[in-house]
Each structure stands twice: as structure tokens, then as C-alpha cells.
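I trust your eye. Have a critical look at both lines of this record:
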Amino acid sequence: MDARGALTVADLGVVDYDAALAIQAAMLAARLGGTIGDTLLMMEHPHVFTLGRGADERFIVGNPASVPIRRVSRGGQVTYHGPGQSIGYPILKLEGRDRDVTKYLRDLEAAMIDALAKFGIDAARRDAMTGVWVGSRKIASIGVGIRRWTTWHGFALNVSTDLSFFDSIVPCGIEGCRTTSICELTNRAVSVRQFAEVMRESFRRVFHYDEIVLAGPSQTGQAPHHLMAGNG
């Protein structure tokens, strides 16, 4: 496959979910308009449950902590985001042979599987179940949106997540689904930032980018200014 050139990666730190949606929407518009190149936004969210376009609210089975609930324009059922979870939102233009939604989903899985291997975790896919698994436990979820063959939304991988929050939902609508995390599996302290540094390189290799350009972290939860240059 031909290389894709440079991938810009921006680690935005902890970003409120609604603010992250606004950042994604602005960057999606910029990518559609050709004023930015392919970009991977990495971040962490405060507690939130999200429902995909056609998700069934009955899969939220309890909410004792009054976690906010948002319905959004991604695919998939209900999932949980919160502290200790590595979130990736790729804003990519799919071209040529890459204009294949199934291929895009499998590539996202492959990138996470590759990154987890660097932590000694043997992760895998499961037939007909989008996401990444370690044995019978799910460690990462995927829910994407694609507009005019440009991607948004993305993936969430449990690094040091408090897994008890998944008890309030039926994760991804899969009855009996149990979740796990890097820290639970390795019994080591691993930070979201440590995982993100490994993940961006795995993403680069799987998606065939020549190089990574780091945009730098933002303390305000806003996209770095130069990413949005020319977006008006």
C-alpha cells in the first residue's frame, strides 16, 4: 500500500465530552474543506455514557452516580467513557482502496492489538463483534462516524479505568460482556499518556503513514490553534 504522508497527532489531555464533540465537528469540517491533513486526536474524558445513533436506552441498566448520558452520531450501542481510558478520534480522509468501512474498523482493531502487545497483552478480535478482546473480556470499543468518506468518532481503550462503571450498562449491547483494562491484566501502573505514546506509533504503522507530527498538548481542552489554521 502507498504511504499516506504525515499524520498529525494531538494529545489534548482531559476534555469534557461535549467539548470534544465540538472540536471533532470543527476538525471534520476543516478536513472536508482541505484546510488540515489527517489528524488523530487523543484524549481522556470525565465520566459519561454515550449511545450510538440506533442504540437502545434499555442497555443503560442503572446509573447510581448520575453519570451524564449523550446520544451521538456514531455507530454502535452504549459505552462508558471516563478517567483512565485512552480515547482516539481519527479525522481521516479515506481514499482509493481505503474507502471501505469494514477495512477501517479492522485497521483500528489491528492498531490497538499491536499497541497492547507492547505491554505484553495478547489481544484479539472476535467474530462479528467489533472491538478488541483479551480472552472473554473486552478491553476496547469502537464507534465511528463517516461523512463523505472522512472519519470521526473512534475508539476507547481501558488503561486504568474504574471498571465498576460498566456495571451500569450492557457494554455495546452484548449481554454478559465483561470488561478489563491494561492495569488489571498486567498488575502494573500504566498511565493513559504512556499508552497514547505507544498507540500513536502503532496507528502510524497500521495506517501506513510516513511520519507523525506532534501538535502538542492543550491545557484548555481546545484543539491547538495551528491545527485549525485556515478554518475560519
